[in-house]
Structure formats: C-alpha cells, structure tokens
Amino acid sequence: MVKRRFWVSRIEEAWGRRPIVWLSGVRRSGKTSLALSLDDVEYLDCELPRVRAALRDPEGFWRSLPEERRVILDEVHRLEAPAELLKIAADHFPKLRVLATGSSTMGASRKFRDTLTGRKTELSLTPLCAEDLKDFGGEDMTRRLLRGGLPPFYLADTPRGGDFQEWIDSYWARDVQEHFRLERRDSFMRFLELLLARSGGMFEATAFAGLCQASRPTISNYLRAMEATHIAHVIRPFSTRRQSEIVAAPKVYGFDTGFVCHQRGWDRLRPDDHGVLWEHLVLNQLRAHGFSGQARYWRDKRGREVDFILPGLRGAPCAIECKWSSSAFKADGLRALRLLHPEGENIAGCRDVDRPHTAKIDGLAIRFVGLGSLAAGLADAGVAP
Prior knowledge:
By secondary structure, this protein is α/β, with parallel strands linked by helices. The chain has helices spanning 5-17, 31-36, 49-54, 58-63, 82-92, 130-135, 141-147, 151-155, 161-179, 185-197, 205-212, 216-228, 257-264, 273-288, 332-340, 374-380; strands at residues 20-25, 42-45, 70-74, 97-103, 120-124, 201-202, 232-237, 251-254, 296-299, 305-311, 317-323, 346-350, 357-361, 364-369. The protein has 16 helices and 14 strands. The protein has a 9-stranded mixed β-sheet with strand order 6-8-7-9-10-11-12-14-13, sandwiched between helices. A 5-stranded parallel β-sheet has the order 2-3-4-1-5. The longest helix has 19 residues, at 161-179.
C-alpha cells in the first residue's frame, strides 16, 4: 500500500482544528487506501450490514470507544442518518477524531442537509498531485498525463480503454442516478464525452445542445450535476467589467487527464498535446492545496489569455501561466493583463523548473516554479487557500 504522505498530513492538520474530517473524492481516487494508511485508527466499512447495525445507536456506539479514539467511517453515505451520527460525535465526544469518507456526491446527498457547520473540515481527494507522484515512485509526468491520476489507472502496466468506460458507466449508475433526477442516459453520456474531449475550452451550452439532443437548460443541469460530483470544474472569467474583457463565458475542465486522453483517442502524446494537459495538472495541484474555489481565468476580446487568476495581496490578481517548457514561455497574455490590472504577482508554472527563480520578461517580473513548488510560490505571493 502506498502511503500518500501529503494527504495524511492534511488529515492530521484538519483533525487538529476540528473533530470531524469529511473526505470525499471520485470513485477509485484512493479514499479507502488513504484511510487505512493512517496510524492507530479503528476502521469501519459502512457498506457492511453488521457495521450499519452497530451504528443505529450513535450515542451507545461512541460511548463504547476509548475517549480519544480515531475512527474511520468508510462510505459513510451508506448510513441512514450519517449527519446525525457525526453531529453527536462532535458535540458530545469532542476528544474523538472521525474521518468520514464517501463519494463526491456526499455534498449533493439529502442525507447531508445538516452541514455540520463548525464541526467538520472538508477535504476533496484529487487525482494524483505532485506530492503523490513522489510516493508512487517518481515524477513520470508523461505517464501521469496519459493514464491519469486515479491510482489503479496510473499504476496499470498498460492503460485499457475498457477501464475508463467501466468507470464512466459506474459513475452514471451510482452517482448520477442516486442523487439527480436525470433520466436520459444517452444524452447525458454524450455530453460527458464531449465535455471531456473539449476539456479546457470555452463553454457555451447552446453549442452542446444540438449534439446531445437536449435543450440548453438541460445541458446546464447536466453541467451542474457534474460540477457537484467533481467530474467537471468550471472556471469563470476574471474581469472588472471593462469593455475589452470576457465577462461571462466560463471554461470547463474534466477532472482527470487520463479520461481527457481517452475521449480524445490519444494512446500516446505528441509534443503539442502536453500543453493543454499540463494546464489540467496545474489546476489539479491548485485543487489539492485548496486554491481552486477562487480560481478564475482572464481573456480579452482579442484572444489574449492568462490561464488562472487568484486573489493575492489586497485583492490584486495573482496571474498563473501554465507551460510544459519554460523555454517556450511568452508573456503576451500577462502583458495584456497588466496593462489593465498592473498590481499583482506573475507566476509561470512549468514542467522543467527544478528550482524556483524570478526572471524579467518584457518588463514583467515573473516567478518560475515547478508543479511541486506552486503552492509555496502562491503563498509567497500572498495567496491564501
């Protein structure tokens, strides 16, 4: 079993703040393996009938445990009243520490209408981030881009298209069907395929409606369901309503590069393919460190663009450009952004940067960082998760 030290550290830090850690993630992202890798815990699989029976009396169950026990409730969404169980633990047994795991639909489930405000810390387990790759035997970025970041897919000897399709079928059956009132499977699945194939591009619902034989409102509902289950990540534009800026159209990214490659029919990567996939990997790194909820992109009506914008010191836009190779870096987008928004830090996230450094390009000071040093670079720029 691979110990994902970055996520173990995040769980331990979260337990230091609040008694309940709510760990969600897409199927096969490694939630159970991560939970089992924690030291000195009592593991309970909530899919087992005997475990569900033991938890029907929450107060009695919690009293039966040592006062400072660390408990894993795996697949907690399978319980009848998981929010009540966790609330009782937090309010009446404050020395207990509980890690509750479940699919990414936990937040969409009616069982979690009680949000446990002030009692829990939420973590979303991403596909493999830069820190994970070190634990999985090294930073083979091309393998990570092509096979994706779900551990069994990344570790497989050879990627198999059937595995991706099996996962997608399971997603429809177990995540979408259980929590959303969506009936037209073929239409939904066609939209998912197109979204992955066009991942990272500008999104306009009307463009998908005809291809999926669905109305524009239906396409918007599909996207909301995918966003709620962490299958799609919607990045909205940053602007101050200037006439030259894009102010409405979002960009949409699929959750994992392996699925993007599968839908594009890529079984090997050409040099030009790395750039768009690298952008996905940078977004995944932002998500792993808790930055993605604030992420925007910037684009003007002449097509000049900056990949991601985050709020920095005093709200000044911190700009992130993603480049597979630092030698190919051009500052056109950053220069256009800074003509309108001169304040803020500039960061270039590049595959081939081993040591962070600052360079001046076209009169702009730009901080070059690798994937593993991106979060530290953002912290230096005054960006907080």
